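agent> Task received from the user: take the single chain below, predict its 3D structure, and emit structure tokens. No templates, no multimer pairing.
agent> Plan: (1) validate residues, (2) run structure prediction, (3) serialize to tokens, (4) report one or two observations.
agent> Step 1 OK, no nonstandard residues flagged.
tool_call: predict_structure(input=
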Amino acid sequence: MYTLISCLIGSCVFFYLWEVASTCFLLASFLSLGLLCQNFSVNQDMIFWGNYLSNLLIFLSVVLCFLCLITTPYEKSGTYVINLFMLSIFLSLSFSMSNMILFYVFFEASLIPTLLLIIGWGYQPERLQAGTYMMLYTVGASLPLFILLIWRCMSSGTMDMCIQSSLPVSLPLILVIFLYGAFLVKLPMYSVHLWLPKAHVEAPLVGSMILAGILLKLGGYGIFLMNKSFSMTPSIVGLVVVGVSIWGGLLVSFMCLRQVDIKALVAYSSVSHMGIVSSGLILNNTWGVTSAVITMLAHGFSSSALFCLAYFSYSKSHTRNIPYMKGLLQLYPILSLRWFIFCCINMAAPPTLNLVGELFISVALWKISWPIAVVMGLMVFLSAAYNMYLYTSINHGFHSNYLSGGSPLLSYENLSLVLHLMPLLFLIKGSLLL
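)
tool_result: status=success, residues=434
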């Protein structure tokens, strides 16, 4: 009898797995808000710890996993929901580990559900090549970091990242490259970014949302942790990385103006924004770290919303080619309004959070080198240019014949975009009050 009851409960839970998962993610989102109500001190309990950045990223991870389920209510298979569950667990654990080796384990384990999402729910045969690129770049760059972490643990006698090691303050050049390399590939920094546009283009909607919204932030969080654990100070390698990141962001902005694939354009814009994050964290001063934290949080919601908009527009035009998607304003004015709002957020129009992050990093860059600050200004200008190009190319002009068979925005699509916008609005209000 008890066996029969347990089987019935299990079958009901499995049948309503999407609904159960959505409720769990919603409750976890509200609970994670409580983590944000603390000061800048570090809370530690056994192998877990919490600081202001990890708490923000845990909140971002849970909310975006909830938004992934809301955006794809037609995907209710058990494998799909379990993949999202495992991904959120791995991400939350990696953001809350104080043990170096466990952080590395969960840092790498988060790639497995992402790879399964790309391969299992991608659209084209090239998704296998995109998954291979992602694994080769990220895992290959992480292996030297693993050796360096073991050496640090053996030298200091502890695996705890909160305890400062007795290692020399200035590490050798090759060790600094190993230390930052794994996280710069994950961000990614320009010149090691080739896996990201390919993964975005071949990934399904949820894969793109997770990649841009959360997984890229793992790289920034890793740099933040390594600065604390190894007592890193700006060095020659760090200044070179800052220069490459800012110059690379400028070059990527030019590349965005030449893109015809809408997902590739949004993916390259993520590379440009992550150049600000890597620069701010490696400079490791108050202006730089504050800019990186603000940019990571704002970019997590805005880039995820842009990929949602790209998919919704694709579902109406049946193409990702920008010239064939023009004229959305005539047929779908609500969708065009959403494009306008999120393109303004992505271009850092006032009073958005992206603008605050760019202003803070400009101060940090001006203190070390005014030419790099000038390049940063050009990158900001081009960011506005390619976002305006994206909006006008898709929404203005006479509509294409490919758009004639579409349907208006559905209720769950509108809900997803509104929920992407709400955290940004609350954060903007909070920053204005401060």
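agent> Step 4: summary for the user.
The CA atoms of residues 2 and 8 lie 10 Å apart.
agent> Done.
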